[in-house]
Write a sequence for this structure.
């Protein structure tokens, strides 16, 4: 498997916008946009998928999200467009892990386009404080050995673009 460098990802237009600060040797950092607290159970079965709408967290007067221990849905600021020859993996930045929080992300299939979401889990019993626009994850792109017959056009294609 071949992974793209951060510079190659940036020059390929896979992530928009890209700042110089977000370039990494093996990927591109993604930044935090919004955080949503869960307000209802989710439902997933062969016939049904219900994603709770949630309650958006507000930024406090000190410009931080004050996040208590628990699970939250986050949205990234950047638009990601996975090419037909690639697959995306999103990993938490080590600084996030070192403060007692983590991100859980799904695979981003060839053809995915949107402002992705991830699950933020705060394990630190004192919580964490994050600002909008802070680098929170690293996107790594791998090249597939051959082109797939189909591109992703599932329920989350185009999420966060409207």
């Amino acid at each position: 498997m071949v992974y793209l460098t951060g510079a190659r990802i940036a020059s390929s237009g896979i992530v928009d916008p890209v700042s110089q600060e977000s370039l990494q040797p093996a990927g591109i950092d993604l930044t935090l946009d919004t955080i949503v607290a869960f307000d209802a159970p989710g439902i997933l079965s062969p016939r049904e998928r219900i994603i709770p709408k949630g309650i958006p967290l507000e930024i406090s007067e000190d410009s931080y999200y004050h996040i208590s221990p628990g699970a939250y849905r986050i949205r990234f600021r950047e638009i990601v467009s996975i090419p037909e020859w690639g697959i995306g993996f999103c990993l938490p930045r080590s600084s996030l892990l070192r403060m007692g929080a983590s991100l859980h992300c799904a695979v981003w299939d060839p053809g995915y386009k949107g402002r992705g979401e991830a699950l933020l889990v705060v394990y630190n019993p004192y919580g964490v404080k994050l600002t909008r626009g802070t680098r929170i994850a690293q996107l790594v792109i791998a090249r597939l050995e051959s082109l797939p017959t189909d591109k992703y056009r599932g329920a989350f294609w185009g999420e966060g673009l409207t």
User: Anything to note?
Assistant: The chain has one domain: 2-40+51-143. The domain at 2-40+51-143 is CATH 2.70.40.10 (Deoxyuridine 5'-Triphosphate Nucleotidohydrolase; Chain A). Residues 6-11 form the longest helix (6 residues).
